[in-house]
Amino acid sequence: MSMDRGQREGDEVLLMGNEAIARGALEAGVQVAAGYPGTPSSEIIETLSRFAETGKLYVEWSTNEKVAMETAAAASFAGLRSLCVMKQNGVNVASDFLLHLAGSGTRAGMILITCDDPGALSSVNEGESRHFARLMEIPLLEPADFQEAKEMTRWAFTLSEEIRNIVMVRSVTRMSHASGNVILGALPPAVRKAEFLCDGAVSDPERGPVISAPVIEKHRLQQEKIRKAAAIFEKSPFNAYSGPERPELLIITSSACRLYSLEAVSLLDAEDRVGILKLGTTWPLPPALLKRVLSTTEKILIVEEVLPFLEEQVKILAAEQVREIGVKTFYGKNDGALPMAGELNPDLAMAAVGRILGIDPPVLSSAYRKKLRAFAGLAPRREQTFCPGCPHRASYWSIREALQRDGRGGFVCGDIGCYAMASLFPAAGFYTAKTLHAMGSGTGLASGFGKLGSFGMDQPIIAVCGDSTFYHAAIPALINAVHQNANIIFIALDNNGTAMTGFQSHPGIDINAMGDASPVVDIAALCGAIGAKVVVGDPFALQETRETLNRLMEGQQGVKVLILKQSCALSPEKKGTKRYLMQVDDALCRGDACGCNRLCTRIFRCPGLLWNREKKKAQIDEVICAGCGVCAGICPAEAIRCEEAAKS
């Protein structure tokens, strides 16, 4: 069950973690919410957008995370409760403004919700955001279950207003995307009026200008706020101990790792030997609470994801209090009890607890293990690939062909999105992309490569990025390339939405997060306005795209922009429809005897193309074929035919 308007106070409903966070914000009276889509955080803004009403709640997908934070901060300065939402990589983008915001402070409650991705399940890295809380000297909260996700989010606004600063709430993938029962609270009827009071002195927090200077005074005030938060955390209901009065082993944990710890202790039947301190307020730590609990035992295991953030802070506190609590033995990341990278799980936690206590973990019977291996062997091998009908496969095919025909060793600087697979998988982008870093970095790197001609570099340099990434981070790099007269080809893969995270709106689409009509910022017009030569094409027109690229490579003086426009195969306007009905002419398909060496199924490898082992010929999978018609253009024998599909 998803959250909807018909639910009332006291109802118990099944909510995804991100929906529970959104509900907590609504119960707190949030009026402005901004974010940039990124898994595993996207559903928070999407949920809030369903509750947007004129004058009550404003929701937006911002062009990037820094702008989202600035939008939310403006609301706070004007007296409205606000939040900004992003995944772990987004905090890096927003950190420039966050450093200043933490210094200036806020007015109405404002929270930063960051959803980290341990294990990099949907990210190019598993970098975590907790360290920013300590770096910026702002409070950090971490919910450990779904009810707490709602309650903690609601309380975070109160805490923000009490200390007059932004508060960070951190979730992780297994919290954001799992689901659990949540009892709903009341939604506040009152709506605050926005007004920015700024006619007072610099020192007036209510009516003065909101600036992060003078530096020393503001920094001292900021540190007073963090000390006040630590005092509040001493009595926080989000910190809880369970277990024996004097445990043989104390587990200190937070977030989803609490669930792993509980299961591990239960599986080992060690509830009478192990105590668990679950911390919801992980920065700053409540020193009196930690002193009291640490005094009860000699051995402490810290279970957390990903880096030893909590472990290091607990050790510092223990060192400062060693005369009163005695010397302790710590286990966790640094001693190898738990891995320093990747997701944790109950098995890893159980293995660590078992080694410390000398308990052998439960062992599966050999017969059961044999069955598991047999079942595992039945699962087909699945490689990551672009979807049937994906325009990115067509784009990279043309790029690959053009670079090979040019023959000068040209390469692609990749970027973050579905198309990032071009750097890794032959079934996706034919190993075409040779660099992959942060959003927009493909264009920045290409700009740098494009100035190396005086050092003998004559390789064609191509930068690719998607439409949402273009607005997010590529524009400054592209402006730099134009101004520096870098010799690059910039390709915008415009599939009409933030496809990787669920087709959220961006400035190139004529609606906003709330579904209202919005002006379109046209990529071609913008690129032309900064002085680049612009060509617009269709990636499904393979020969035309390849010829255009080879023409742009000739001379390669300055910045040339190619916009390849074709909607994502899974987009709402395409889903369930086919432009063409595809078929393979068995009389023309020569299979292994063809000089193409099975180009269609071995190299192009669209999931809609199959190799029929009995006929030893290519075959169309009519169930999953999207009917884009691209494969007809890659068969040298012209054995793949397309017929216009009937329009309903």
Give a written overview of the molecule.
With 648 residues, the chain is α/β, with parallel strands linked by helices. The protein has 4 domains: 12-233, Thiamin diphosphate (ThDP)-binding fold, Pyr/PP domains (Rossmann fold); 240-357, Rossmann fold, CATH 3.40.50; 391-565, Thiamin diphosphate (ThDP)-binding fold, Pyr/PP domains (Rossmann fold); 580-644, Alpha-Beta Plaits (2-Layer Sandwich), CATH 3.30.70. The strands form 6 sheets. Strands 3-2-4-5-7-6-12 form a 7-stranded mixed sheet. A 6-stranded parallel sheet has the order 16-15-17-18-20-19, sandwiched between helices. A 5-stranded mixed sheet has the order 9-11-10-13-14, sandwiched between helices. The chain starts with 11 loop residues before the first strand and ends with a strand.
Please state the oligomeric state of the protein chains shown.
Answer: single chain
How large is the count of helical segments? 20
Name of the CATH homologous superfamily of the largest domain: Thiamin diphosphate (ThDP)-binding fold, Pyr/PP domains
Strand order of the largest sheet: 3-2-4-5-7-6-12
CATH architecture term of the largest domain:
3-Layer(aba) Sandwich
Overall, the morphology is globular
Q: Beta fraction of the residues?
A: 15-25%
What is the domain total for the residues? Answer: 4
Instruction: Report on the biggest sheet.
Output: 7 strands, mixed
Radius of gyration: 28 Å
Q: State the secondary-structure class.
A: alpha/beta
Low-confidence stretches: none
Global mean pLDDT: 91
Question: What is the CATH topology classification name of the largest domain?
Answer: Rossmann fold
